[in-house]
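User: Please predict structures.

Assistant: First:
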Amino acid sequence: MHHTALYHAVLAAIADGNTTRGGIATYLQRKSTDLAHALGVLQDSGLLSYHRDAFRKNRSAYRIAEPLLTFYHAIMQPAWGDLERPGRAEPVWRRSKQRFTAQIVGPHFEEICRQWARWHAEPETFAGRTPDQVASGTVSDPKVGKTLEVDVVAVGRDDDRGVLLALGEVKWQEAIDIGHIKRLEHVRDLLVSRGQPGAESARLLLFSGAGFSDQVIQRARSDSAIELVGLDRLYAGRE
């Protein structure tokens, strides 16, 4: 029973946005070494997945593999008292919609886009190359003292060397505008300055569930390095 409670606590911590082992331990007020067994069991059972940062190998994150579990821990469990009473479901949903989008739908859509890039994208998406790894990643920008998150990082293999094929931005309820392209271009420039193999020719992938601005569409037509992936292309292969 003790182990069951710990497993649920770990899932709740991750559902609340604590994805590193240190973050989970802080959330639960435990030592990180105390979590090794629980994290291992949850991974072995397929409830958790473990992901290394594409650019920082010493940085990793845990994700809940089943969105329904995230929904339970992030939305239902905190409001259980209200949900047990008739007529309370609608106000619970109203105050939970933003959390639902940010912590469940958004991250799950990002993972769908990574899986598409890894397994379903046509080779032309990567200039005829095929990625053998697709992950998320973080790139530090020393000039502003910030870390920039990249939703999709596609890497191919050139002999024994990893070569960057593409960087991607994912938005579920937000239309992609020219600012998103400029952000990815900035990340690409940072990687070029650091000598990242393949960075100079890396494609820019823009994924959106809400569409693309006219300026972005025009830019993509004139720049073969930019790929737009909307829902039609993502699910049915249509441009």
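Second:
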Amino acid sequence: MRELFPKSCGIGCAIETAPAPLLPAAEAVVVETAAAVRKSSFAAGRAAARAALEQIGFPHAVIRAGADRAPVWPDGGIGSISHAGGLAVAVAARTADLPAIGVDLERTAAVDRQLWDTLMVAGERRFLASRPEAEQSRFATAIFCIKEAFYKYQYPSVHKWLDFREVEVELDMQSDEWKLRLGEPIAIGGKQKSSFGGRYRIGDMFTLAAAH
């Protein structure tokens, strides 16, 4: 994650544990009626987010949830949280440094061909079909991961629920960079844009995508 985000960002990771650790009351209320597995996932995400915020000057932050259940970050800060396979990751930044940020974590090769029609546009499906069969699920998961990271990146600014087929991702396999195109521009940081970019990394166990 350190390689995927600017140095000005805080980075946090936490492993889910059972039973879930105690949370501040304002956070615990979000999952008070949830199943134990959800409580563990939520607590790990908040722990990772707290660690990320502390690195950029927001110690002991309490990260409530809004009416849409999205995290409410401290004034002057932004962040993003993701979970997969018992692991939680988070990234945070000051709004003075970045207008928006997003991270997503997925189990590598989790997206198989049966999901392509639901998650991919025609250009992405052609790219995947051109790859050796052993690589297809790995790159399909990377594209899905990027779309999830971008969704988290844009949502606090735009408050729009994006369909995965409203965006098209192009992967640069040499540099581990991605480009994404939207059918219509959106405003991020006061600027209208329809093209975005970031970085991704496919590991043996997990795939990460960064949007900033």
